[in-house]
Amino acid sequence: MSVKGLLGKKVGMTQVFDAEGKVIPVTVLAVEPNVITQIKTVDSDGYSAVQLGFEDIKVTKLTRPEQGHLAAAGVQPKRYLREVDLQDGASVTLGQALVAGDVFTEGERISVIGTSKGKGFAGVVKRYHFRGQNRTHGASLTGRKPQSAGATDAARVFKGTKRPGHMGDERVTQQGLKVVRIDAERNLVLVRGAVPGSDNALVILQKSHRVYREPKAIEQSRSSKKK
Known about the structure:
Blueprint lengths: L4 E13 L5 E8 L3 E7 L1 H4 L3 E8 L7 H10 L4 E8 L11 E2 L1 H4 L5 E7 L4 E3 L1 H5 L36 E3 L3 E13 L4 E5 L9 E6 L7 H12 L1
Antiparallel strand pairs: 1-2, 1-12, 2-11, 3-4, 3-6, 4-5, 7-10, 7-12, 8-9, 10-11
């Protein structure tokens, strides 16, 4: 293992079966080889990290500074450039290609970062799940309105009050997703559960900082305590 994350794209959701025949809902992530385009060290930048390039594009799609940056690293034009942390004591080289099997293993828990779907301007019922009023006795015109915005003595709306506004299109981190399967031939990673964002959207797969225990291990620990 060299880096703590990789870039990929969300393909969509499907389901697979485990060894016991149980159905597992999974999200398919296309993790093509990531190329190291820049190495940051403690001596030069104050911290250790690497910049990864993902998805080939035409050179005309990049600006002149971007072209020069990738040409200096000896890397083909890439659409996405993102920075991820470097593993302690890891040794990497400029232009090195990393695949999913080099960073992740089946069965481990990871975090997936994506951009949530944009919903546009939304009211409080959709945005914050307000209950709303009853739809009887003439309340149909005001049933989805937020009503009172707080104290009346202040004569203003306090900062942070839940009001209608822009919904979605935000950076979201989904933690604790289990890697169900890694298809090295097709560069696919299957994770259990849903991943933020729409299909074909960029996602960042990262090593989880938390320690997760499987349900069986939790039950065993509880039974041992009872004894």
